[in-house]
Amino acid sequence: MKFPITILSTLALAAGLAAAGSALAQSAVVGQAAPAFTAKDTSGKTVSLADFKGKHVVLEWVNPGCPYVQKHYDAKNMQATQQAATGKGVVWLAVNTTAAEHGDYLPPAQLAAWMKAQGASATATLMDEDGKLGRAYGARTTPHMYVIDGAGKLVYAGAIDSKPSSRASDIATATNHVNVALAESLAGKPVSTASTRAYGCTIKYSNAGE
Predict the structure, then answer these.
(1) Is the pLDDT of residue 66 over 60?
(2) Alpha-carbon distance 149 to 69, whole Å?
(3) Domains detected in the chain
(4) Rounded to an integer, what distance in angstroms lies between the CA atom of residue 35 and that of residue 56?
(5) How far apart are alpha carbons 134 and 61 in whole angstroms?
(6) pLDDT category of residue 21 using cuts at 50, 70 and 90
């Protein structure tokens, strides 16, 4: 049976809207359970959110080619934030969602070498070339930060700090939202600023993951 072009177009539009609505529904929401995930780290080891049940977890979206990422790493601000978190027993997972076909993409071994050279203190660095993890959380920029509490609830999502610039000189006068969120959540208090607008470079998602 053949359908008129107008009907086919309407059906295609409806399907597209349904898919978009489904993707949106799957995005992480502050105050709700963090989306479960499983990914390979730079050493090829499988890492799942479920592995860290009962622990606070920070997700950090990273792209070494991004000036905003370089701002926080060159100034050692990201490393200091990582160290402060892991020193309290928090699990820190860096996530690279850069598509393999993009110029900023680093293969696992090269990304691991970059993290090591930076003195990063991430518990693991996850590869997300297909973008499934990034899309599940609605990650938009590098860096984009998420804090998950010990009960598996997302308690913070947004920027690393309150100064949305690529200038390292702004770090000293900025409020580190991740530090504050972790301190409050670990103390059993509600996070006072649970959501902020993330800033940085747009994540280079793979079209194959759409």
Answers:
(1) yes
(2) 24
(3) 28-209 (3.40.30.10)
(4) 14
(5) 8
(6) very low
